[in-house]
Amino acid sequence: MNIVRKDLDQNNAIVTLRIEKVDYAEKVDKTLRDYRKKANIPGFRPGMVPAGLVKKMYGKAVLAEEINKLVSDNLYNYIRENNINILGEPLPNETEQQPIDFDNQETFEFVFDLGIAPEFEVELTKKDKVKFYTIAVSDEMVENQVKSYTGRYGKYIQEEIVEEKDMLKGELLELANGKVNESGIKVQDAALTASYMKDAQKALFVGAKKGDVITFNPTIAFENEAEISSLLKISKDEAKTITSDFQLKIESITRYHESAIDQELFDKVYGEGVVTSEEEFRAKIKENIQDSLVSDSEYKFGVDAQEALVAKFDSLTFPDAFLKRWVLSSNENLTPETLEEDYSKMIADLKWHLIKDKLAKSNDIKVEAADVEEYAKKVAKAQFAQYGMIGMDDEIIANYAKDMMKKEDTLKNMIDKVAEEKVFAIVKEAVKLDNKEVSIEEFNKMFETK
């Protein structure tokens, strides 16, 4: 076999593979002999089918399969052995590739276009500047978290006098002419909350006492049939027909009381004895918020660093025509018009991929299993924190992280993220950081669509 490479420019090359009969004849013959042994053709005993008949029936398909395998294996071996950093996949040349005739040819030529990545080196110095935003933790953020904890760790207490948000329970009876309708709707242990009622009906309940009997009209009190059907335990269609008054004898008044800011709350949030005063509690909350915001700052740094590095290598050239052709051939649903619209973004992403790969190789970045496990724990901890579950037991975090890593796609994504974080750590150390403290509002505005 003969392979010839012809460079058209720094980003485009043509590779021609010439395959002679000596390259494939032996393998084709061996495959046909195997076919003859296994062929089950009426009129012939197994293994006794004439070789000529087997060749006539299967020879062309076997030849084509063997040629295709030779082309694929040798093309990619050539690329690998010559360290050609290709973009996309080799494509058949549209002008120099001649038709292939497996019936009559013994020598075959295959011509492929290669798109080649630009050659460059990534050297970062303190002359390269990237912004780094530290998000300030405001008193309001701390206070909001305190309220979140006092709300979450409160308790329900039985009361004697109704307030708007209390849960009321009792026997609910339908009335007719101001009296209980013995054949009407009866709901034992009915539950309602005055805050969901319209003001006029709400006023009938607020200030009432346990044991009081309140007469009201559900149709007037509530906005829709869904609320009425839920209260009266009837269908929505039946609720549409309700016009009568009902009476509720208040048997219980349940009110949710937020937790006091005391040692019991401190222990529930952070564990027994970790925090012993409100001052320490607020300081710990501020510290936790600051820790949670670090990942946001790092994310923004990554966005800005990527943008700065892509801009730094703005002069890199790419095999544009080849790449567009390859992308269109690889994506059936993509149109040339859509590709043109997205092409600049695609090239920016490709530049970043090449830059990141250069930095990873030049700094010998490796992703170990322990790195991925720590990243998974960080993700797990962040997910718990979204629901206010801070200070979770290490074993719970570790088990949750292991469950996430069992999913192949999730694990692959985590490995990529760890590698990228390591690259950003290299960049952060090499460049000059333009540090700036901002409020959470200012930080969030940076991500608003311009």
Report on the structure:
With 450 residues, this protein is of the alpha+beta class. It folds into 3 domains: 2-116, 2-Layer Sandwich (Alpha-Beta Plaits); 129-146 and 266-445, Trigger factor, domain 2; 155-257, Chitinase A, domain 3 (Roll). It has 15 helices and 12 strands. Strands 6, 7, 8, 9, 10 and 11 form a 6-stranded antiparallel β-sheet that branches. Strands 1-2-4-3 form a 4-stranded antiparallel β-sheet, with helices on both faces. It has a two-stranded parallel ribbon with strand order 5-12. A hairpin with a 2-residue loop joins strand 1 and strand 2. The longest helix is centred in the middle third of the chain and has 35 residues, at 278-312.
Number of strands: 12
Radius of gyration: 37 Å
Estimate the global geometry from the Cα principal axes.
elongated
Chain-averaged pLDDT = 92
Overall structural class, as computed from helix and strand content, comes to: alpha+beta
- In the predicted model, the low-confidence regions spanning at least 5 consecutive residues are none
Total helical segments: 15
- Beta-strand content: 15-25%
Tally of separate domains: 3
Helix content: 40-55%
Main sheet: strands, sense, barrel: 6 strands, antiparallel
How far is the first residue's CA from the last residue's CA? 57 Å
The succession of helices and strands, N to C, reads: EEHHEEEHEEEEHEHHHEHHHHHHHEH
